[in-house]
Design brief:
Elements: H1 2-23, H2 38-58, H3 64-85, H4 93-119
Length: 120
């Protein structure tokens, strides 16, 4: 029961961080590190961890696809919110693809973890 509370708090916190970082304005952010598509890697990681943390909270494989679709929907909603409610951010279909890919990889990772626990 204690782990369930921890995973719930982590999943909520992660969701809030993703929301904030998706909608906040970062005008003074510059980086000397030039990595192609680094923002897509960030989107990928956000939604991979979203699926992993929520799946660890629910701990039942029957919810895995619901969590996956919730993550994909949430990513799309965040992109729409960027377009509608921010002046410095814009919606990007490549971000949606990165979010979706990260969510799918998160599902694959969590499925592997759950399968390993049930076979040992």
């Amino acid at each position: 029961m204690h782990n369930k509370k921890i995973f719930f708090l982590l999943a909520i916190l992660w969701t809030l961080v993703v929301t904030y970082l998706s909608l906040a304005t970062f005008e003074d952010v510059s980086s000397d590190i030039k990595v192609p598509f680094k923002d897509k890697f960030v989107h990928f990681t956000f939604y991979m961890m979203f699926v992993i943390l929520w799946s660890l909270f629910f701990k039942q494989s029957k919810y895995n696809y619901k969590i996956l679709f919730a993550a994909i929907g949430y990513g799309i909603v965040m992109e729409i919110c960027q377009k509608l409610f921010t002046t410095t951010r814009s919606a990007d279909i490549l971000d949606v693809i990165a979010n979706t890919t990260g969510a799918i990889v998160g599902l694959l990772i969590i499925t592997k973890i759950f399968n390993n626990k049930t076979t040992h």
